[in-house]
Amino acid sequence: KNATTQLAKAQRTTIVQTIAASGTIEPAKQADLDFAVSGRVTHVRVKVGEVVQKGDALANVGTAALMQQRAAAEATVRADEEKVAADSAGSAQQAADEAALTAARSALQNATTAVKDAALRATISGTVTAVNLSVGQAVSGGTGGAQNSSSDASQVSIQSTKTFVVSATVDDTQ
């Protein structure tokens, strides 16, 4: 038998096929946030459904006690700096005073961070999906404002609204 060949011009086309799938859709990013410091809530600045940007203040706790701790740490650093300056070179007391100064500077850094952490800030841009805070409520310091991976209710939850993850099951016959 003789084979025949037929030439055809190639064309671009779109093939559309509908398939059935079942699955889930969820935001690519979600942040469950908690205060990193303990205190009493003084402001709740967001509500469910509100759109926030990364870095926005969501809520605050009172800073009076935190400011006092920072002021005390600053005074300790100044006093320890004076002790180190007054020590004679190479003395055993100088080494002890320098160690105390290092510890005091660390305490000052921690106190400064605590004052900054009195504001709970959004770690992602998105929509507020939960607010479990009210003015006057006492909160305990937790995860440093970072994402909370526990199953406990977070103080504020945010979901991204720009990117989603779809997990779907498609029958192999489709």
Describe this structure in words.
With 174 residues, the protein is of the alpha+beta class. It is 28% helix and 26% strand. The strands form 3 sheets. It has a 4-stranded antiparallel sheet, with no helix packed on it. Strands 6-5-3-8 form a 4-stranded antiparallel sheet, with no helix packed on it. A two-stranded antiparallel ribbon has the order 1-10. α1 (64-86) packs antiparallel against α2 (92-116). The longest helix has 25 residues, at 92-116. Residues 144-151 have low confidence and may be disordered.
Question: What distinguishing features does this structure have?
Answer:
four-stranded antiparallel beta sheet, single chain, 174 residues, elongated, alpha+beta
Fold topology:
Blueprint lengths: L20 E7 L2 E4 L5 E6 L6 E2 L4 E5 L2 H23 L5 H25 L2 E3 L4 E6 L6 E2 L16 E4 L4 E7 L4
Antiparallel strand pairs: 1-10, 2-9, 3-5, 3-8, 4-7, 5-6, 7-9
